[in-house]
Design a protein that fits this description.
Number of helices: 14
Shape: globular
CATH topology of one domain: Rossmann fold
CATH class of one domain: Alpha Beta
Number of strands: 16
CATH superfamily of one domain: NADH-ubiquinone oxidoreductase 51kDa subunit
Radius of gyration: 21 Å
Structural class: alpha/beta
Order of helices and strands: HEEEEEEEEHHEHHEHEHEHEEHEEHHHHH
Bound molecules: iron/sulfur cluster
Strand content: 15-25%
Mean pLDDT: 88
Distance between the termini: 48 Å
CATH architecture of one domain: 3-Layer(aba) Sandwich
Helix content: 25-40%
Strand order of the largest sheet: 1-14-13-16-15
Length: about 450
Amino acid sequence: MIFNTDKQYNFKEKGRFKVDINIKMSALEDPFTEVPPAKKMTVFLRQHLGSQTQLIVNEGDSVQYGQIIGNDFNENPLSAPIHSPVNGKIIELKKLRHPDSGKMEDAVIIETTDNNKQAFFEPIKFETASKEKLLERVRDAGIVGLGGAAFPTHFKLNPTKKITHLIINAKESDPNVACDCRLMMEKPMGILNGIQIMAKILGVENIAVATRTEEGETPEFEKIIQENGIALKRMRPNYSIGAEKLLIKEILDKEVPSGKYPPDIGVVVHNVATAEAVSKAVIDGESLVSRGLTFYSEHEGGKNLWVRMGTPVEHILKHLGVSALKFDRIILGSILMGPTIPDPTYPILKATSGITAFTKNTPDPYGNSLPCIRCGYCNTVCPVDIYPQLIMEAEKAENVRWLKNLHVEACIECGLCSYVCPSRIRFTKYLKGGKLRIRE
Ligand code: SF4
Ligand code: SF4
């Protein structure tokens, strides 16, 4: 065992279901294995926070691995191109319910012709390249925040305010996800290069990596980071500290005012896996078409997999030798905040950091929700002091002004309100829906 299994998360066993830290600890020991692409890949044309892209190739066209197939015609900066994860042929454009928004959105079905992974773009020498060229590559490669928010990275790397601090978030609070920590163990140089590219684009010198690991747990990563003048900040194991605004408070003791964003106080936060994806985009010419994630089910335990976006969950389960029929409920992402998919044909998105599968015998923590009993637990536990229960009412009423007054945009999507609710109410769709309604 490399990792200290005595560490506990603050919420362990306080809610209606048990979140066992040993899930994470066992997954930390499991190296990434690559899942080959499926015969048919399902690629959503929006896998980021922002506007949907439009298909720029035709049904019947052959496409290459890493080729842009979806782009925003209006060049909306809050969008990121979508790429083909395989060499293949576009066989269908159809509407599917998006796991994140819950709305019907465009997705393309691509028939895989081979397993080749020739990078689509030319490599760039980042040490001599201009900031503009690096930024353009980050956009063209479709890089988005891989920690869960899927915010377009090129947008975040091009703020209008002067940036003084870059924080790399390797806190990875989710109790059933270990892929960021594995990445630190397996790809430290890629992460370092990505950090250096981001720092060059932003023009910052103050850089810190926030990690939940302890000294000696990721030795090569620690050495490389410190040798390059980057501060390594070890975080308390509290679950919600992984959220951007709370991380800034913890590291810099600075508050991001409500309704404002980190760049407003001179700070930019990027996830550690995003840094590695930036490195691959620039140095290797790779589009963002694959990522590391952690699969977890009670029987199989935690497994770290390298998967291409668009791979159906059932294909991943088949690769693991597990039948999808065995599971009653599958979540994409964190056990606390990830969306449940309607069936296992649903694919992996750019922001999918985990797959959590519940068997028929595993109690569904949010099954059979009951009406709110106004106990107030959800309000008490919220780390940003907003009122999830009222937000749920406002979202049900589709009342934008009420949602604004309740500061739904301050929600860090930690999932703690759902976790403590005695009525087993799952707030995810109301909180995400409320934010989306305000933006729209
Ligand atoms: S509303 Fe719920 S999900 Fe949002 S920050 Fe508060 S506790 Fe977390
Ligand atoms: S925790 Fe659940 S039951 Fe209690 S006030 Fe919040 S929504 Fe209502």
